[in-house]
Amino acid sequence: xxxxxxxxxxxxxxxxxxxxPVHAQSADxxxxxxxxxxxxTVRTMTLDQFxxxxxxxxxxxxxxxxxxxxxxxLGLEPGGVDGSWTQPVPLLHTVxxxxxxxxxxAKGETTALEAGKDIYVSTxxxxxxxxxxxxxxxxxxxxxxxxxxxxxxxKDVDLTSKVAVFLVNDPDFAAAADEAVAGIxxxxxxxxxxxxxxxxxxxxxxxxxxxxxxHETEAAGYGWSVVESPQGENYGIARSDGEMTSxxxxxxxxxxxxxxxxxxxxxxxxxxxVAARKNDFRPVPIxxxxxxxYPVKQEVVxxxxxxxxxxxxxxxDETIIYGAHWDAYGEGPPDDEGRIYRAGANDxxxxxxxxxxxxxxxxxxxxxxRTIVIAAWSAEERGLLGSEVYAQNPIxxxxxxxxxxxxxxxxxxxxxxxxxxxxKGQGTLEDDLARFAKLQGRVVTEENLxxxxxxFRADHFSLAKRGVPxxxxxxLAGASDLVEGGRKAGQKWIDDYTGNCYHAACDAWxxxxxxxxxxxxxxxxxxxxxxxxxxxxxxxWKSGSEFKERRDASAATRQ
Length: 559
Description:
The chain is an alpha/beta fold. The chain has helices at about 10-20, 25-30, 35-45, 60-75, 195-205, 215-220, 225-230, 255-265, 270-275, 345-365, 385-390, 430-440, 460-465, 485-500, 515-535, 550, and strands spanning about 75-80, 85-95, 100-105, 110, 120, 130-140, 145, 150, 165, 210-215, 235, 250-255, 285-310, 315-325, 330, 340, 370-375, 400-405, 420, 445, 470-475. The strands form four sheets. The chain has a 15-stranded mixed sheet that branches. It has a two-stranded antiparallel ribbon with strand order 7-8. A two-stranded antiparallel sheet has the order 15-16. The protein starts with 7 loop residues before the first helix and ends in a 7-residue tail after the last helix.
């Protein structure tokens, strides 16, 4: 099998070259999660030889070889397709060039737009040009169709060959307490309907030729600089023509540009925002036309998910999946220290190190009743693509997947008095989290920025959509109450990391890291999986979760 044109022998050589030794230990030592092993894994995965671990590169080849070598050294069995270690993840990679045309026309006046400043778009169509030919623009409110909430922004209006324009987040995000919509979509806590991925998918299902979200920093959870940071690059799952999105272009329109668009068309955007918070809202033709043509560089690159497993003794068809993503952002501009590789030490080499240690601990114990799967996902940073490919083509049936326990970014500032819960009210695994945190002398703290929708922005979500109960361990969801320095110190760690090093070259291992808090979190995740591995208990979704119905439909397979 080839990986981006490089032979498997290179992977084998890489495995031998970069495999960190798993040192022989006594039985007691082998049952401990080791900060030393975690450090060795992170430092290895962030070496320049891995080139920032971008999918479809030589750095990926070396990463895959390293992961296979480590899984073998841990004594895991191959857990991939047809007895291999891997699962193919074919990715469409596109990069837009400078636009030949980019404008909006309204009432006989044409306004040229500046790419990156007024509008940011990309494409997921495998074509050499992305063209929207003078198409009608239509405002569709929040772009939500949610029958279970008796909500439909589209009202069966035909979007074929039109440009859909949305508001960001959920219909109740900005609602006052006395508005009818208040709380229907979780209030300040974002639902999946608030995510840009959902809005683009829904517009495509309705035949739109393009889709633009009006940017607002508070509702989006990030500023315009984050929107434009991919610089016209996008990744998607490589699809056949029949499965391809209808959207030639998808992206964002800046708040100021959107305001001018509606003003020029004689529409009151402020009043439309309020109207869109009512369930009798109907799409509003803007009376403007969008015209754009971009050259596109596009290619299909072959990436890989990597799997190891410990086969269950009595119920091997029931699986507990531990997951983290191996990919990072590859090469970028030099930082102040001359580093060019955005190698993601915390995001998510630390997560990979955590699930490796969990695997090592399980291997030191009696064979579990259920199968333990250790999953290293590809292309999380490109839109949860590796886990989505798996969820569409599961190696282990989702109906009998007991749980997916995900690790993505852990705080490195020391022990904490609490553990951060992402996605309150979703499932019974949060009760397990509270139970095992209490045994550590810790309490659960809810995420303090639920409007950012972090529950929907990590790899576990691909499996949640298929009904698999999930739990995410992510320290970015709220400031930890640190033993030294309290919540103020926890917030400082988040501010320093997200403000300086998130998705940047300085997300690198540091001798200043204190992994005591990360060890607490990794141990909790082990304890939760361990409590399921030797039992016949099935975690469930809680009443009100949008994923409960999907899981309940397959209940008979778990009897």
